[in-house]
Amino acid sequence: MKLWKFKSLSDKGLLHVLQMLATNQVFLPNCELVNDPKEGQWNDCEPPPVNMTADISRQILSRRVQLKGIVKKARFASFSKCESVLNPLMWGHYSGGGNGVAICYESAELVLD
Hints:
The chain is an alpha+beta fold. The chain has helices at 13-23, 54-73, 88-94; strands at residues 2-7, 101-106.
């Protein structure tokens, strides 16, 4: 199986690429460093549901704070599972508009979870 990691060289991208190559590992950014930091954001209900009580509202807010903490600590990876590196969408979005690099990870033992 081939997995492609597309990475921009802007900002700290060059450092991340060098670390990946030197350590034979994949850089996993936290949610603040991904390309789409606002993707999957939580928007409050406007207006709140009719049956919303103060207790339910507090429970939802508490859970929201817990989940936000979990996501902030999480690490994310984005790969392309295509046979060819010639993927304009991946080059445009993940490698800085075509100014980055693509690293291929190939192994029969790779497992996607």
